[in-house]
Amino acid sequence: MSVGFQTVQDALENYKSAIYEQDAARFLATFAADIHIYDCWESWACTGISAWKEIVAAWFAGLREEGVVLRTDFADLVVESNANLAFVRCAITFAAYNKSGEKLREITNRFTFGLRNEQESWVIAHAHSSLPISLETGKGLFDVR
Predict the structure, then answer these.
(1) Taking the model in full, what pTM does it have?
(2) SnoaL-like domain spans which residues (predicted)?
(3) What three-state secondary structure class fits 4?
(4) What is the pLDDT of residue 6?
(5) N or C: which end of the chain has fewer CB within 10 A?
(6) Exposed/middle/buried for residue 11 (C-beta within 10 Å: 0-12, 13-18, 19+)
(7) Mean confidence (pLDDT) of the chain
(8) Which CATH number applies to 8-130?
């Protein structure tokens, strides 16, 4: 899918709306072909758009199977950029809603994105998601914020 993001904010808005619409192709267009991701869930890293595509397809299929949509909100957003590179840090809340609009659950993760301007379009080349970890239990703290 060929989508151009003139600004970093355009790429971030696409990230949010593609998740809400569960549009995997549009969501994946936000990422560079050589994307490198450190995520909170199960794997140490994900490298390359093909591997990320499999994860995203399973994620969106699970949401559809459950009958939920995710609303994605950015907080504490900081963007620093020049003509070719951008650094973004923020907190992202993913809130799941059923078809009647009832909120079922939510999680907020800390995110860092590294973007680059490729052929006059901003794409995410690196993403890092994290949670604080309890020193007592070694488990992620989902409700610290």
Answers:
(1) 0.91
(2) 8-133
(3) coil
(4) 95
(5) N
(6) buried
(7) 93
(8) 3.10.450.50
